[in-house]
Specification:
Helix content: 40-55%
Largest sheet: 7 strands, mixed
Strand content: 5-15%
Order of helices and strands: HEHEHEHEHHHHHHHEHEHE
Shape: globular
Strand order of the largest sheet: 3-2-1-4-5-7-6
CATH architecture of the largest domain: 3-Layer(aba) Sandwich
Number of domains: 2
Radius of gyration: 20 Å
Bound molecules: S-adenosylmethionine
CATH topology of the largest domain: Rossmann fold
Length: 304
């Protein structure tokens, strides 16, 4: 999810109808929601399962895990949850004795409470500590990472996340102020970025800096890459895997991997892209829920 498109208070699962349709849920199947969040998608999936079907839900954030567990409680032992990073999905499934699953969903990024709660440090619109960890036991906060970064490293990350023009200027100013202890909060960083980056339309000057730092703190692209390397062979024949990405770096990884799997297969397995083009939210959905604007859903199916 992107903060620009998040006016606060919107907790509606993105592309819900499309996810449920495209996963082709079998009532007796085994399913994974690798990004439980508030449990909206998970609830829709598990409500389509019979007593034989099961859903495993993961989240790295213990607070969201509790929120989702309470939402899924009416479904009793049809759901199992784990506090885990989806990059380790293979190990979690092995631990449960699940050899293959019929469907998986990954709705990437942060959840509404991450952006709404200032103390989590994700929002440039609120004043909180410069934290940005989805997993509060993660070793490094955004501030501790900045304290040990070189100017060149920060330039590289900012360029990767689209802040080309101002990357050098931003990097120098941010690291200067961090070293002088002038940046401690999200507000300090956001104000500095806003002074340097001229506003482009409705985009806040800190948008790309916050996105880049958040990704770095949580190694979001690394986790996605590991997931893409390990998850497709965990599908049973006919099983489907859906990924909702919110920015172009994530979506490109998904797009390229799904295309390669369709063309080349993997370990003797064949796959097809159910969606050649990403599925995007309808006008009605984006009118109701602006954060759906940047969502792109791609779905892969194992053929044999
Ligand atoms: C966009 S929200 C999911 C919202 C959810 N689909 C719903 O209906 O409420 C993403 C959630 O995934 C979690 N998350 C992000 N990356 C993760 C990862 N690599 N492993 C496990 N959980 C992750 C975040 O903590 C967050 O709670």
């Amino acid at each position: 999810m992107n903060e620009e498109a998040h006016p606060g208070g919107m907790h509606e699962p993105v592309l819900l109808g499309e996810v449920v349709d495209l996963l082709h849920i079998r009532p007796e199947g085994l399913y994974v929601d690798g990004t439980l969040g508030l449990g909206g998608h998970a609830e829709a999936i598990v409500s389509r399962l019979s007593g034989q079907g099961k859903l495993l839900g993961l989240d790295v954030d213990p607070t969201n895990l509790v929120r989702a567990e309470s939402r899924l409680q009416p479904f009793g032992n049809r759901t199992t949850t784990r506090r885990a990073n989806f990059r380790g999905l293979q190990g979690v499934l092995r631990g449960l004795g699940w050899n293959a699953v019929d469907g998986m969903l990954f709705d990437l990024g942060v959840s509404s409470p991450h952006l709404d709660e200032a103390e989590r440090g994700f929002s440039f619109q609120k004043c909180g500590p410069l934290d940005m960890r989805m997993d509060p036991q993660g070793k490094k906060t955004a501030l501790s990472l900045l304290r040990e970064m070189s100017e060149d490293d920060l330039i590289k990350v900012l360029i990767e996340f689209g802040e080309g023009r101002f990357a050098r200027k931003l990097s120098r100013a941010i690291l200067h102020d961090v070293r002088q202890d002038l940046i401690k909060t999200t507000r300090d960083l956001a104000d500095l970025c806003q002074r340097i980056v001229r506003k482009r339309g409705k985009t806040h000057g800190a948008t790309r800096v916050f996105l880049a730092l958040r990704n770095l703190v949580n190694d979001e692209l690394g986790a996605l890459q590991e997931l893409l390397n390990t998850a497709p062979p965990l599908l049973s024949v006919g099983g489907r895997m859906g990924i909702i990405a919110f920015h172009s770096l994530e979506d490109r990884l998904v797009k390229v991997t799904f295309k390669t799997l369709e063309q080349e297969g993997l370990m003797g397995m064949a796959f097809r892209r159910v969606t050649k083009k990403p599925v995007q939210a309808s006008q009605t959905e984006t009118d109701r829920n602006p954060r759906a604007r940047s969502a792109k859903l791609r779905v892969l199916e194992r053929l044999r």
